[in-house]
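tokens incoming
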């Protein structure tokens, strides 16, 4: 460790448990792994959870780096470039990986018990700080309490930022925006319009300051009522399509009409067969599940675009076993699917029908709606299915990728969630898989996203949301 310009990052166990590729994300700087971290990785390698899989992947990567190296090589630091995470690319010019090859001692306050693993890591960090006083030594940990303790003993610490999709959740793409009040006065003379069947399109010139994305919703602020969807953006031109009006009761979907402009945009996305992936964000009561189920039933039972509806959600603990209680997969998942059952009751309420007719409807729906556990999704391929991922804010980016890549030909995937209500202890608004897919899919012409903000549950729920 002679290069004083390079920083030395000490990795906490939770960083490697969260992201095995963290070893390659510190550019030219050096990485240090203590013996305590190796012990904790060894203790966490068993099991079928996401964390256990990440630990095993971390161990494999470290084994590849350390392979065929002598003790003297390990002591001098092993180039992380010994294995290349992205074959085919140029050299990454990464730093070196160091291990605790000799005892490192430093004095900790008497209030910190010496038998705790976290305090051993702090002790190692302080010893490295004293040994390499000319280098910037930093502890990297996702544990907030660990960062607090690190600061109190004089060791610089940082969160692991590489997994963050955005710096701030407020910067997340909302999927819609208001048109300026003088939109028609500004573009009316140069705007071209044409029809293709029942669809109406417009083409207009845009400047470099216009940041529209494919399938973004545009809402008029004046009486013109011009609500449109951006279909294409290229070469200084944008093609807009006039939005279908699902707020009109005559255009309702399974008896459900949009109650506001945001819900109208969402139904346009959900009912569009050219959009393969839809993400709906919003607080409780904005209508995410109800709108999605209505669109799914319409396209599955009435239009026969899909053969069946598949619903799944992250159970807490995230992705863990659903238990050994008697019953089928669907019966075990039923307690987690209260939102599905509540919304199905709304959609199947029909005045004037007998109990026998209502029961027949329920039996029909039970054959076309399947409830699946996330645990058994790996390796499957779903053809011509309408897949609904509920509570998607509790999924990691890796889990989200695993689920979405299950989609076969003719399948539509809809992700529902509220990033302000994350139950997983390992995720935040900026690191959840839902934020990840919203940001990564926004440029794709076959995906759409909208953040619903207006609650439509009841006046009691609205008052409680505003005042409690």
């Amino acid at each position: 460790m002679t290069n004083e310009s390079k920083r030395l990052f000490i990795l906490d166990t939770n960083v490697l448990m969260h992201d095995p590729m963290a070893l390659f994300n510190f550019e030219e700087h050096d990485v240090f792994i203590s013996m305590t971290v190796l012990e904790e990785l060894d203790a966490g390698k068993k099991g079928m959870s996401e964390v256990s899989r990440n630990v095993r992947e971390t161990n494999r990567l470290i084994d590849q780096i350390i392979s065929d190296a002598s003790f003297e090589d390990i002591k001098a630091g092993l180039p992380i470039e010994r294995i290349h995470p992205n074959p085919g690319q140029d050299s990454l010019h990464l730093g070196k990986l160091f291990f605790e090859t000799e005892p490192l001692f430093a004095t900790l306050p008497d209030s910190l018990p010496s038998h705790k693993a976290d305090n051993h890591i702090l002790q190692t960090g302080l010893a490295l700080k004293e040994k390499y006083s000319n280098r910037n030594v930093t502890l990297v940990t996702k544990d907030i309490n660990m960062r607090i303790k690190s600061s109190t003993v004089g060791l610089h610490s940082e969160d692991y930022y590489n997994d963050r999709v955005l710096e701030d959740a407020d910067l997340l793409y909302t999927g819609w925006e208001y048109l300026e009040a003088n939109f028609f006065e500004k573009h009316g003379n140069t705007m071209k319009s044409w029809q293709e069947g029942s669809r109406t399109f417009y083409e207009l010139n845009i400047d470099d300051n216009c940041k529209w994305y494919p399938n973004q919703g545009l809402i008029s602020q004046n009486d013109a009522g011009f609500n449109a969807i951006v279909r294409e953006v290229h070469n200084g031109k944008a093609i807009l399509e006039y939005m279908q009006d699902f707020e009109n009761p005559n255009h309702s979907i399974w008896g459900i009409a949009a109650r506001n402009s945001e819900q109208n945009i969402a139904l346009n996305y959900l009912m569009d067969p050219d959009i393969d992936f839809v993400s709906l964000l919003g607080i409780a009561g904005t209508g995410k599940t109800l709108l999605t189920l209505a669109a799914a039933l319409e396209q599955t039972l009435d239009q026969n675009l899909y053969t069946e509806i598949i619903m799944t959600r992250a159970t807490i603990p995230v992705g863990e076993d659903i238990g050994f209680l008697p019953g089928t997969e669907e019966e075990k998942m039923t307690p987690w699917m209260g939102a599905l059952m509540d919304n199905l009751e709304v959609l199947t309420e029909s005045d004037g029908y007998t109990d026998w007719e209502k029961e027949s409807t329920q039996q029909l729906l039970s054959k076309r709606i399947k409830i699946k556990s996330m645990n058994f999704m790996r390796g499957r391929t779903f053809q011509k299915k309408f897949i609904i991922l509920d509570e998607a804010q509790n999924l990691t980016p890796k889990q989200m990728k695993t689920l979405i890549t299950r989609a076969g030909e003719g399948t539509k995937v809809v992700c529902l969630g509220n990033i302000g209500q994350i139950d997983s202890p390992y995720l935040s608004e900026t690191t959840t898989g839902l934020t990840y897919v919203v940001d990564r899919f926004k440029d794709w012409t076959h995906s759409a996203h909208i953040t619903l903000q207006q609650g439509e549950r009841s006046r009691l729920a609205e008052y409680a949301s505003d005042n409690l």
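note: Residues 272-467 form a domain with the Rossmann fold fold (CATH 3.40.50.300).
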